[in-house]
Here is the input.
Amino acid sequence: MLYWLTALSDGGDVFNLFRYITFRAGGAFMTALIFGFLFGKPLINVLRKRQGKGQPIRDDGPEGHFSKAGTPTMGGLLVVGALLTATLMWARWDNPFVWLVLFVTLAYGLIGFADDYAKVSKQNTKGVPGKVRLALGIMIAVIAALWAAAYHPAPLQNQLALPVFKDTLINLGIFYVPFSICVLVGAANAVNLTDGLDGLAIMPVMIAAGTLGVIAYAVGRVDFTEYLDVHYVPGTGEILIFCAALFGAGLGFLWYNAPPAAVFMGDTGSLALGGALGAIAIATKHELVLAIVGGLFVVEALSVIIQVLYFKRTGRRVFLMAPIHHHYEKKGWAEPQIVIRFWIISLILAMIGLATLKVR
Here is the structure.
């Protein structure tokens, strides 16, 4: 919205700053951060009053989690609210990729909200049936895939770009939509599975968003893409503003989610943010790089898949408990120790993901 202040500029005044994506990204970051600080405490008070007993705790979970009973959930409302406000204030409204990412974020957030509401109102951990969540997630992913393809340059439509390999594209054809479904649904649910300890999911999401924001800015500038030998996707640079807003919103939420958490993100936040990462990867044609940058989420999801499949086949478990962060809890690691070490791993993976821009 504030971009339109450039119409008042003569090219040499303060209004000219609003032309620059980097300036508006900084504004989006600060707006989302301030939003989180201003509305975090009031929202937590409302959630605590409305929810009463808070998020239900699994009976078969780690023993240390029973002390968290009564903590309110749906804290993702704070993140999504800050993210939406900051993005709409600072991003260009005529950019289709911004609206694509916002659509996916809000749509998956609504699924998560319905799931959280069902859990809190019924005071059980089941929520919305898994098949219903999956069906809705697939519908959103189909819309997003077709939306992205419609605005990609013709040479990139329905193509899969390979990191490291210069100018290499794989034509997915009719399999582009199913592939995009895997990316979006997989990212949303992987972040959801990771969100099991105080502060565990939000920082890796912020790290991944920051990394993808740099990538989006690079692939949206023709001079950068020529230098880096990556594919040029016009318009994606504006996604940096969304990513900066996500980073600021994440910091604002982490202020209240740091151990011991005053509020949980809930599915409202984890599904929304996971979907957002998937949407950014699809928009920028960096789906495979997302698997590197978000490698922690991939490992968390794989640990659950491996555990379930192995148990069904043999009746035994590979991990003491899945997702894998619970495995380390069972081994005696302290919660802050797990969280900080997983943050470090996320940062290392982000650096590797960024390196793929130059390694060709």
Q: What stands out?
A: The chain has one domain: 2-7+20-291. The first strand starts at residue 159 and ends at 161. The mean pLDDT is 92. Strands lie at 159-161, 169-171.
